[in-house]
Design goal:
Length: about 350
């Protein structure tokens, strides 16, 4: 390409710098969104089998989003902005001479063309607005639900009284929320169902953000051809297209992670329901026998210890089974939590040319 093939609509290219700056904000905003919704009540549950993995996933994904936002999209925006400044402060002939000395990715079959000077920066405007939705209140979707037959179970009846009583107190603002007394025992073992569901929702939002940025940069690189031609423009366009392409594997990876979190949440919910039943049986057995009958000369004598042992064994069986399920999911998540490779180079843009 010779000097005459260089052409630029400076006013329009400023829109590209602004668009790339917005992509950086999209990626950083996704990282902030992840951080705001990452916490799990009672840890990650199941005797914290997933605690370290969950933390690594959050840290790894946060690092990736901030790296692509700050070290790629934002630096691309700054580089295009510097090119615009160079063109504003230099005459066209000098800019063309400098452009001819720069490396570029030129298609020899692509005929020379001039930048369309009738266009403005609005050609890079985003017709949509990336919005990451606030996660639903999954705790309200998975509440404890008392049943009419609870009156036949001493422990369930006591549980219902506490549930309804704390519900009234929560409505008046005396306490922050309604309390299920069984949750203090079962949730730390089985996991924060609502929190895991929320994490799955948030990861879907992050995947959407990454895909959105990739698609928009592809569009912006194509539109750029209409307002900026030459070596610098071709190098910039090639780098942007590759950046958009290299973001795409991250979308599939994060969607996979979201699916795994949802599976973990469902496993936790199912095990918690069964563990609630086992805990109810154990407490009913102890309450039916009564403490007065259970204590004889300062020692436990009349409790049906074999039956309690069987119930306790059942609870432990549930814990072991849950740990096995999580161990499999742990391996799946670890396999999915692979790094995304991005190119190290940035688009070549001209410095200030001499007149």
């Amino acid at each position: 390409m010779d000097a005459m093939d260089f052409s630029v609509n400076i006013r329009a290219v400023t829109g590209l710098a602004d668009a790339l700056d917005l992509r950086a904000h999209n990626l950083i905003g996704a990282a902030d969104y992840l951080q705001a919704n990452k916490d799990l009540r009672y840890g990650s549950g199941l005797l914290n089998e997933l605690a370290q993995t969950h933390e690594r996933i959050v840290v790894g994904l946060d690092t990736f989003l901030r790296h692509t936002g700050n070290d790629y999209a934002e630096r691309y925006a700054l580089a295009v902005g510097r090119a615009v400044h160079a063109y504003v402060t230099t005459d066209v002939a000098a800019s063309a001479r400098v452009d001819a000395t720069l490396p570029g990715v030129i298609d020899p079959t692509d005929p020379p063309r001039l930048a369309d000077q009738t266009l403005g920066p609005q050609i890079f405007d985003d017709p949509f607005c990336l919005t990451l939705a606030t996660p639903p209140d999954y705790r309200s979707q998975y509440p404890y639900e008392p049943h009419f037959y609870d009156m036949f179970s001493p422990s369930s009846l006591a549980r219902d009284i506490i549930w309804y009583g704390t519900g009234v107190l929560a409505e008046f603002g005396v306490i922050p929320e309604q309390v299920d007394p069984f949750e203090a025992f079962t949730a730390p073992l089985c996991g924060d169902v609502a929190g895991l569901k929320k994490m799955s929702f948030v990861l879907c939002g992050v995947a959407t953000a990454i895909g959105y940025v990739s698609d928009r940069i592809d569009v912006e690189a194509d539109v750029m051809d209409r307002v900026w031609t030459g070596h610098a423009a071709s190098g910039c366009r090639s780098a942007l297209i590759r950046f958009a392409r290299d973001l795409r594997p991250a979308v599939d990876l994060v969607v996979k992670l979201a699916e795994e979190y949802d599976r973990v949440a469902e496993a936790a919910r199912a095990n918690r329901e069964v563990m609630d039943m086992a805990l109810t049986l154990m407490l009913d057995e102890a309450m039916t026998l009564g403490l007065d009958d259970a204590v004889e000369l300062g020692s436990i004598a009349l409790l049906d210890l074999p039956r309690l042992a069987r119930i306790g064994a059942r609870i432990w069986e549930l814990i072991v089974k849950a740990k096995e399920v999580i161990a499999l999911l742990h391996l799946t998540i670890e396999a999915a939590n692979a790094p995304i490779n991005l190119p190290d180079d940035l688009p070549v843009v001209p410095g200030a040319a001499h007149r």
